[in-house]
């Protein structure tokens, strides 16, 4: 029950008082003149008028009280929806220094403060992003140049003076070259990871099954000798950035292939389900490869974290970190289950296109 | 032959401040016999003087441009994008092919270069063999395959 309705109820109760008093007075006093019809009816009429007047003025008072409150409530709702914008209209006319007026003033001060905090935060984010841009630029340019010189000049040494080196000398040259290449790869991976954090996420409806199939065909084409038995079951569509999600599948699929290729019958299963209650869709990639110890599951998605020596499986350890970054930028989550020598399953969630359709009608 | 005094005979102008990189570039081009008429400058200011025949290069003739300019982005004094802008906004020089040769694969650099009218954009590979291949291919293309205005 809102304030206006409550006020009406109270007023009606108060208005009944003079009527009840009048009635009681008439019947309990034995006064002759009150017994007369004219006095009785005029007294009743007077009481009735008093009651009506009190209801009328009461309603006016209630309206005067609730209107500014309603405006204030609308302003609060407006502010909650767009906290970064100044209030478009004053909450109430700038008169009245009552309690509601005080509330309005406090709300104004608070909203201005929040807006300032918001602006400061935006500025801070812009500053940090610019710093990050400068950092990644410097990484890409300044770190790569000396590396190229190292790799190039060792190669020149090998080309021009290789004949003067014995086996051990040649091995040392090869070690330097391998490491220069590895560092180049690490720098490139770090850059791609940082770029994924800065890139805008452009969401659209993705037909997931054809996307997964095309990623798989592309990988087969680049490595035709690698035969893997793959099952792609029906899966729901998602609402996400197609380029980024392509990268997620490329990483997960190449991992599944890499860690199961030693199996006589390498098998990969891919599927997905709709999670109606959370408005998300969930996908998985399951392989029967070397798996991993669940003890280390928390480390799996960290940058440059590897659970296998580079001599067994190549890679820098950026793939799953990229997967997590992309999925989390879509508001989804990643998780993994595995068992040593039994295989691994990777799961991730994304927004459902149904959720997107619904928010369009808001 | 790095500093050919007959500047009018220069086929390739290499604008590169990192001496190691220019040595690698020269080696790559030499492998394809493309380094006979190459001139190297180490900053954007010298590049502009060469291209517009002023200062140290006042004796050069502007109507005989190099066949291609290999331009780094990060340069002392005047940076690569500014040099590119000057070349492409002058009627006398805008037809000279300019190839950006840089470590930066940043989208913003690519965008700026193409908007300014660059003819090609190459990212220097860290791997030396790839570097030799990329430079060799680019040299062959711009000097032997591509037809420039200069005969």
**SSE arrangement of chain B, N to C:** EHEHEHEHEH
Count of discrete structural domains of chain A: 3
CATH class of the largest domain in chain A: Alpha Beta
Mean pLDDT of chain A: 82
What is the CATH class designation of chain B? Alpha Beta
CATH architecture of the largest domain in chain A: 2-Layer Sandwich
Structural class of chain A: alpha+beta
Q: What proportion strand of chain B?
A: 5-15%
How many strand elements of chain A? 7
Q: Low-confidence segments of chain B, ≥5 residues, pLDDT <50?
A: none
Structure in words:
- With 362 residues, chain A is an alpha+beta fold.
- Chain A folds into three domains: 3-115, no CATH class; 137-198; 204-360, Histidine kinase-like ATPase, C-terminal domain (Heat Shock Protein 90).
- Chain A is built from nine helices and seven strands, in the order αααααβαββαββαββα.
- Chain A has helices at residues 3-28, 32-35, 37-81, 99-161, 167-198, 208-222, 242-258, 319-329, 353-360, and strands at residues 204-206, 229-232, 238-240, 267-275, 280-287, 334-339, 343-351.
- In chain A, strands 2-4-5-7-6 form a five-stranded mixed sheet.
- The longest helix of chain A is centred in the middle third of the chain and has 63 residues, at 99-161.
- Chain A is elongated.
- Chain A starts with a helix and ends with a helix.
- Chain B is of the alpha/beta class and 151 residues long.
- Chain B has a single domain (7-130), classed as 3-Layer(aba) Sandwich (Rossmann fold).
- Helix content of chain B is 38%, strand content 14%.
- Chain B contains five helices and five strands, in the order βαβαβαβαβα.
- Chain B has a five-stranded parallel sheet with strand order 2-1-3-4-5, with helices on both faces.
- In chain B, helix 4 links the parallel strand 4 (98-102) and strand 5.
- In chain B, helix 1 (19-31) crosses helix 5 (128-145) and helix 2 (44-52) packs parallel to helix 3.
- Chain B is globular, with a radius of gyration of 14 Å.
- Chain B starts with 11 loop residues before the first strand and ends in a 6-residue tail after the last helix.
- Classes of the chains: A alpha+beta (362), B alpha/beta (151).
